[in-house]
C-alpha cells in the first residue's frame, strides 16, 4: 500500500459524499472508477474500504440506497440525504481548513507578509 493511501483513507467518506453531491447518485463500482479517473490512477479505492464506508454513511442517515435492475442484475445506487448534503458542506469546510493548515506547516512562509 502506498503511504498516500493511508492519508486518503481518513478522507474516504468525505470523498464519497463530494462525488455524490456532484453526480446525484452512483453505484459502488462507479465511485471507485471515478476516483481512479479523477486522480489519474493515484488513488485506488478497494471494495474492502468502500463498502464499509458506504454502510457507515447510510447508518448515520447521510445516504439513501435505491435498488435498480440493470441488464438483469440488481444494482445498488447511493444518494445523499438532506442531512448528508449538510454534512458534505461541513466536511468540505473542515477539509479545506485542514489543507490550509497543512500548507502553512509545510511552507511556513506561506502566510507571512514580508
From TrEMBL:
Protein name, entry field: PadR family transcriptional regulator
Recorded superkingdom: Bacteria
Domain Transcription regulator PadR N-terminal: 16-87
InterPro entries: Metal_resp_DNA-bind_regulator, Tscrpt_reg_PadR_N, WH-like_DNA-bd_sf, WH_DNA-bd_sf
Amino acid at each position: 500500500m502506498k503511504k498516500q493511501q493511508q492519508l486518503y483513507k481518513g478522507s474516504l467518506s468525505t470523498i464519497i459524499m463530494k462525488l455524490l453531491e456532484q453526480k446525484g447518485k452512483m453505484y459502488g463500482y462507479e465511485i471507485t472508477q471515478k476516483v481512479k479517473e479523477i486522480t489519474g490512477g493515484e488513488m485506488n479505492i478497494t471494495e474492502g474500504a468502500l463498502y464499509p464506508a458506504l454502510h457507515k454513511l447510510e447508518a448515520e442517515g447521510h445516504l439513501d440506497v435505491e435498488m435498480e435492475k440493470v441488464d438483469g442484475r440488481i444494482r445498488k445506487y447511493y444518494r445523499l440525504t438532506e442531512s448528508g448534503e449538510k454534512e458534505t458542506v461541513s466536511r468540505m469546510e473542515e477539509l479545506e481548513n485542514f489543507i490550509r493548515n497543512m500548507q502553512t506547516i509545510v511552507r511556513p512562509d506561506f502566510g507571512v507578509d514580508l
